[in-house]
Design a protein that fits this description.
The structure is a single chain. The strands form 3 sheets. Strands 3, 5, 6, 7, 8, 15 and 16 form a 7-stranded mixed β-sheet that branches. Strands 11-10-9-12-13-14 form a 6-stranded parallel β-sheet, with helices on both faces. α3 packs across α4 and α3 packs across α10. The chain is built from 11 helices and 16 strands. The protein has 2 domains: about 190 residues, Alpha-Beta Complex (Quinone Oxidoreductase, Chain A, domain 1), CATH 3.90.180.10; about 140 residues, Rossmann fold. α4 links the parallel β9 and β10. The model has no long low-confidence stretch (mean pLDDT about 95). With about 350 residues, it is of the alpha/beta class.
């Protein structure tokens, strides 16, 4: 089968950083696995991070890619939720071969039914960032998706135009929050508003006076999706007593978790959406349930795809361009690729 592989850790401007290769197709699925014919993928920062990770000379070529949509070709004996021919979308498992290949084996418990109102590319934009935003807000931070208690509360989303931020804005608004997103360019600010942000402020400028100008003295919850270290002190200042902060970016150094975090009893929550699959947690099926619920919300018109830029078919040259754009730090929404040459 056709696949895009990584053989060595190289800068993305090196043509050998990602290569087209014919590799053996996966075998028939066993256990909870599905065999999926991959029709579209999207690209996330984790792809670039995994590509840059050191590799030994003896390591076999690796298939990256952790966002896909496609059609089920075969199911393992323990699968009950899917059948051949079903259209699906998923993020998969970072410890297994990824989706940058024509066929992939993936655990059905992390797979959802594809939204019927989206094409494969728009659907592929959703899984990883949707699971990250949903799990962070509603599993880790214990907020409520449908709960009137959030009416009048403020959610601050730092890095609102990125993939996770684009979905966090939508979910936060649906949950009843007044959503304030940050963006530093007119195009990214416009995107945040299109995703449903009530207000957009500039994260390159001091945040407190911009919030004060909106009549906001404190925020009830904050997602720092951009730079954990850079905004740590100001979030301690901005968060209300008993507020919550959600994080996805590993800090570069130690974080001081004493006052004001201690004095205000601010809770700190980490999210890594591959944790359930990586450790085989007892609630692994929750990712299947989340993706199915999100598909229903998309089909009902309550959520929308975060696909922004289509980069052509799935091949090494287009994936290198996707990685290059991701590493530039200027991507809005999600980058997608669909079909095979």
């Amino acid at each position: 089968m056709k696949a895009v592989v990584q053989e060595r850790a190289l800068p993305i401007d090196d043509p050998a950083s990602l290569s087209d290769m014919n590799v053996p197709a996966p075998g028939q699925p066993t256990g909870h696995d599905l065999l999926v014919r991959v029709l579209a993928v999207s690209v996330n920062p984790v792809d670039a991070k995994q590509r840059r990770a050191p590799r030994t000379d003896e390591a076999p070529p690796r298939i990256l890619g952790f966002d896909a949509s496609g059609v089920v070709e075969a199911v393992g004996p323990d699968v009950t939720a899917f059948a051949p021919g079903d259209e699906v979308y998923y993020a998969g498992d970072v410890t297994r071969p990824g989706c940058n290949a024509q066929w992939q084996l993936v655990d059905a418990r992390v797979v959802g039914r594809k939204p019927t109102t989206l094409d494969f590319a728009d659907a592929a934009a959703l899984p990883l960032t949707t699971l990250t935003a949903w799990e962070l807000l509603f599993d880790r931070m214990c907020l409520r998706f449908d709960d009137s208690r959030h009416r009048g509360q403020v959610l601050l989303v730092i890095g609102g135009a990125g993939g996770v931020g684009s979905m966090a804005i939508q979910l936060g608004r649906h949950a009843g929050f007044t959503v304030v997103a940050t963006a530093s360019r007119p195009a990214s600010a416009d995107w945040c508003r299109a995703m449903g942000a009530h207000h957009v402020i500039d994260h390159r400028q001091p945040l407190p006076p911009q919030l004060q100008a909106l009549g906001i003295a404190a925020v009830d919850a904050a997602l720092n999706l951009a730079d954990t270290d850079a905004y740590w002190e100001v979030l301690g200042e901005l968060l209300a007593p008993q507020g919550r902060v959600g994080l996805i970016v590993e800090p570069r150094g130690p974080l001081r978790i004493g006052d004001p975090y201690k004095a205000k009893c601010i809770s700190i929550h980490w999210e890594f959406m591959f944790a359930r699959a990586r450790f085989g947690t007892a609630d692994l099926i929750e990712q299947h349930r989340i993706l199915n619920r999100v598909a229903s919300l998309v089909d009902a018109g309550e959520l929308r795809s975060t696909a922004h830029t289509a980069l052509g078919t799935i091949n090494a040259a287009n994936l290198r361009e996707a990685h290059r754009q991701l590493e530039s730090g200027s991507v809005i929404g999600k980058l997608t690729l669909a079909g095979w040459d």
